[in-house]
Amino acid sequence: MEKKMLLVAVVLMVVALAGSAVLALAPMGPPTAGLKTGQFRVGVEYAHSDVDMELDGEKLDGVTSNMIFANLGYGIMDDWEAFVRLGVANADVEDFSGDYGFALGLGTKVTFLKQENLNWGALFQINWLNSEDDVELDAYDMQIAVGPTWKLSDTLSIYGGPFVHLIDGEISDDNGDLEEDSAFGGYVGAEAALADNTSLFGEVQFTGAGWAIGTGISWKF
User: Fold this and answer.
1) Are 91 and 24 in contact (CB under 8 A)?
2) What digits encode the pLDDT tens for the residues 50-86?
3) For residue range 163-198, what is the model confidence (pLDDT) as tens digits?
4) Using CA atoms, how far apart are residues 11 and 40, in angstroms rounded to an integer?
5) How far apart, in whole angstroms, are the C-alpha atoms of residue 176 and residue 79?
6) Taking the domains of the chain in order of start, what are their residue ranges?
């Protein structure tokens, strides 16, 4: 028990020093590209997650996190977009609470099959951090998803599919290796057009080690 409490304390210390995007399931949105060549998108996203993790072989139950991101996307091609995230995130583990810290990420989406009202695509996104304060942490958090976006009407689409969630980190001074407790999951969501070039999405994600809810609003120009 003392070892586990020490490991939890190390995690929260790192979170407080460097931010906690690496500890969480981040919002994904549709797995298909939604921008035309040269088009931009700006948005605001929020997610809450509750996942189990492993630190040096010890299981950490119920690592909860809240994330708020600004998202900037760009259409590289009609069927290929890239985006960057900047924001803040926190994490709570058992009786320990972490303050909000800086969070950074990037990602890309590709549409590889188009049908009348059903498009198929793939998504990749990654968050990472490097802390060199009282402890040093090198870590990344990665999600890869594949699935459809089904257009139900001119204003409403649903999306989802399977995804992989990977965490890999190393804490200095032999404090242990950080990794996911379960890598595989699935998600489902809906996106609604509120006005010209403005949309709102909401989704739920599940893995064998936890769950997350996410939402966001964005504007294209």
Assistant:
1) yes
2) 988 887 778 878 888 888 999 999 999 999 999 999 9
3) 999 988 776 665 667 788 889 999 999 999 998 899
4) 36
5) 41
6) 2-212
CATH number of this structure's domain 2-212, picked from the four choices 3.30.70, 2.60.120, 3.40.50, 2.40.128: 2.40.128
